[in-house]
Amino acid sequence: MTDRNCDDSRFPLCLELEQSKVPDSLNPRTPECDDLGDLTDSTGILYSPGWPGTYPVSTDCSWNIYIADADYIRISFISMDLELCCDNLKIWEGSGNYGIFIDTYTGHHNEYPDILLHGPYVYLEFHSDSSGQYDGFELHWRSEPADTACVEEYSSTDGQIYSPGFPKDYIHNLDCQYIITTDEDKILRLTTSFFETDGDKDYLKVYDGGDSSAPLLVTLSGTQHNVPVISSNGNQLFITFNTDDDFSAGGFDMSWTSEAACPVPFITVGSMCLRFLFGDFTFGQATVSCVSEGGTMATIRNAEQLRDFFLYVNQL
Fold this sequence. Notes:
The chain is mainly beta and 316 residues long. It has three domains: 24-144, Spermadhesin, CUB domain (Jelly Rolls); 151-260, Spermadhesin, CUB domain (Jelly Rolls, Sandwich); 267-313, no CATH class. Helix content is 7%, strand content 39%. It has helices spanning 283-292, 303-313; strands at 38-39, 43-47, 59-66, 72-81, 88-93, 100-105, 108-109, 115-118, 121-128, 136-144, 151-154, 159-162, 175-181, 186-196, 203-207, 216-221, 223-224, 230-231, 236-242, 251-260, 267-269, 272-274. A five-stranded mixed beta sheet has the order 1-3-9-5-6, with no helix packed on it. Strands 2, 4, 7, 8 and 10 form a five-stranded antiparallel beta sheet that branches. It has a five-stranded mixed beta sheet with strand order 11-13-19-15-16, with no helix packed on it. A hairpin with an 8-residue loop joins β15 (203-207) and β16 (216-221). It starts with 37 loop residues before the first strand and ends with a helix. This is CUB domain-containing protein. Pfam families: CUB. Keywords: Disulfide bond, Repeat. It comes from Meganyctiphanes norvegica. Residues 33-144, 150-259 form the CUB domain.
């Protein structure tokens, strides 16, 4: 295309702009991709091109998940086998790759945690280079309403619990609830491997029971190192995680185990089995009373036991 008549002497400077075709290598979609357009079903399955065979080389695919009434969209990875160096799947929250970039996924993984994203759009791009063909990926998506998107119940004797999207930063405006239940004759020990939130604006609470009416054991916020083990007195823990619409952070990584409960009439207080006898006792009388009840005088041996003791006494 010529913008002016370059033979015209009235113009001392003449520019010729020649329109050229965009190279195929820069096209965001190649013929091997399924022409799916927007994926608008509330649930669905997405495969790499060529599935269940290996994906082709030199391929660029993109998909836009659009669910009009979705508060959240959950992405669950079923399998992933991509060339680690050069092939990948990228995910954005929003429509197109100008939204909020979430992560790049590559290599061989079967245990990526679910990704919980704000609706109504999620955008995905798959790229393979000119060498190496692997099995590709399979992922599921589903729409989730705000009141159930972050609610989980666990009924095993041990396990792990993560903030949504961990190890990536959690998203805004979460109202998560987790209920952990073990066998009736056991108690729960909750260990924190990582904890980081945006100051005290985003926080996690642990309750000693099955809902928020149970005694509050601890509130965690900010960056926490060496969080003491949190122990239940019964066979349930109720955990809430709340975030605002400001900054986010790394979230949390916790695990729980189950142990035999203290024998009746003793109760679990942190790592101790205690029974409280109230009255006016001399030390000798108190010792005799403890022995007659099948125990010994309790000794607070460290800061963790002291913390657990006062947490319990404050609830009496």
